């Protein structure tokens, strides 16, 4: 990796995503086989466990489960099991573990314990031979292929798509709203280059950025902030649009760059007032998404329109490219961010 040009691997893996999406949508029937078991077991509610980028994918899944399946869902803390030894009754509970590597020790142990406590455990990973897959009763292979860059790009979006196909199949769907994503992702990548370049020029010298979104797009905002922080070393924070107005907005001024994720649908429409409020504080607001053109923002990166529940799979693409561009513009190498590795070794 040291002989490669800075950002070479991240750039290549961003560009690879349309092909990755095509491969995953072609496996919809395979993913649906796991969904059949979940539907038959009829869980009372769903718990999701994850770390890092996968935690944001789990947040996306939480919205899918609560809206599409109308089941309560929550994000668990693995440390309640691994550090504190808690053993809750998990009978009739779906325990969905999301981990790109499948190698995080705390997630592996938490999955083993959840299974012992009666949960139906499902691992969603990019490594079908991982210890996490062995610990879980069922597994879904996201099939993104080897990812070399430390910052997750194609594995993150592939996880979102796999989770959507799984959850949609539980309700009897066939992934119809996702089938155009390979072509739409290719379109997005081809049209966003110029506005991303402009955004890099606008934000190159800022030291503070905020990302925000509502509904399904909350996950995109969280992932965007992580990508910016880990590749550019900016102080980047993500807030739900609703939470942003309850205090954090006081810290936003003309020196703050704000990325507002605003795709067509209820979540995007709810962002309009928030974007306006942030603009009134003097912040430079970049609107990203299929509703970006209709937002009172400083600049925009428009994306193709999709069903709202699959929009995050496209929304993250320009945020990945923005992080790549800003890292390079600031003299960094996003393929080798300091202090990071592909697997989080927490207990």
From TrEMBL:
<feature type="domain" description="SIS">
    <location>
        <begin position="34"/>
        <end position="176"/>
    </location>
</feature>
<keyword id="KW-0677">Repeat</keyword>
<dbReference type="InterPro" id="IPR046348">
    <property type="entry name" value="SIS_dom_sf"/>
</dbReference>
<protein>
    <submittedName>
        <fullName>Glucosamine--fructose-6-phosphate aminotransferase (Isomerizing)</fullName>
    </submittedName>
</protein>
<feature type="region of interest" description="Disordered">
    <location>
        <begin position="328"/>
        <end position="347"/>
    </location>
</feature>
<feature type="domain" description="SIS">
    <location>
        <begin position="199"/>
        <end position="337"/>
    </location>
</feature>
<dbReference type="GO" id="GO:0008483">
    <property type="term" value="F:transaminase activity"/>
</dbReference>
<dbReference type="GO" id="GO:1901135">
    <property type="term" value="P:carbohydrate derivative metabolic process"/>
</dbReference>
<keyword id="KW-0808">Transferase</keyword>
<dbReference type="InterPro" id="IPR001347">
    <property type="entry name" value="SIS_dom"/>
</dbReference>
<dbReference type="Pfam" id="PF01380">
    <property type="entry name" value="SIS"/>
</dbReference>
<keyword id="KW-0032">Aminotransferase</keyword>
<dbReference type="InterPro" id="IPR035490">
    <property type="entry name" value="GlmS/FrlB_SIS"/>
</dbReference>
<dbReference type="InterPro" id="IPR035466">
    <property type="entry name" value="GlmS/AgaS_SIS"/>
</dbReference>
<dbReference type="GO" id="GO:0097367">
    <property type="term" value="F:carbohydrate derivative binding"/>
</dbReference>
């Amino acid at each position: 990796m040291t002989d490669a040009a800075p950002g070479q691997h991240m750039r290549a893996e961003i560009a690879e995503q349309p092909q990755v999406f095509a491969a995953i949508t072609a496996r919809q029937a395979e993913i649906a086989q796991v969904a059949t078991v979940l539907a038959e077991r009829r869980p009372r509610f769903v718990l999701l466990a994850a770390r890092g980028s996968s935690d944001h994918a789990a947040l996306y899944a939480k919205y899918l489960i609560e809206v599409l399946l109308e089941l309560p869902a929550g994000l668990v803390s693995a440390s309640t099991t691994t550090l504190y030894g808690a053993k809750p009754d998990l009978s009739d509970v779906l325990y969905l573990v999301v981990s790109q590597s499948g190698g995080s020790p705390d997630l592996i142990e938490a999955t083993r314990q959840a299974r012992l406590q009666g949960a139906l455990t499902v691992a969603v990973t990019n490594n079908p031979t991982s210890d996490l897959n062995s610990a879980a009763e069922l597994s879904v292979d996201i099939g993104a292929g080897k990812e070399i860059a430390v910052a997750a790009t194609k594995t993150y979006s592939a996880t979102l798509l796999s989770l959507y196909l799984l959850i949609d199949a539980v309700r009897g769907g066939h992934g119809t709203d996702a089938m155009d994503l390979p072509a739409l992702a290719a379109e997005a990548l081809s049209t966003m280059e110029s506005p991303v370049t402009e955004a890099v020029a606008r934000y190159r010298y800022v030291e503070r950025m905020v990302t925000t979104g509502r509904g399904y797009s909350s996950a995109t905002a969280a992932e965007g902030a992580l990508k910016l922080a880990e590749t550019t070393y900016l102080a980047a924070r993500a807030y739900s649009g609703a939470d942003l107005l309850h205090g954090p907005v006081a810290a936003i001024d003309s020196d703050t760059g704000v990325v507002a994720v605003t795709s067509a649908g209820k979540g995007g429409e709810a962002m309009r007032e928030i974007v306006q409020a942030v603009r009134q504080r003097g912040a430079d607001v970049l609107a990203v998404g299929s509703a970006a053109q209709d937002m009172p923002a400083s600049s925009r990166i428009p994306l193709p329109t999709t069903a709202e529940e699959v929009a995050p799979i496209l929304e993250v693409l320009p945020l990945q490219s923005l992080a790549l561009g800003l890292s390079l513009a600031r003299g960094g190498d996003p393929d080798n961010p300091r202090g990071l590795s592909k697997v989080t070794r927490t207990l």
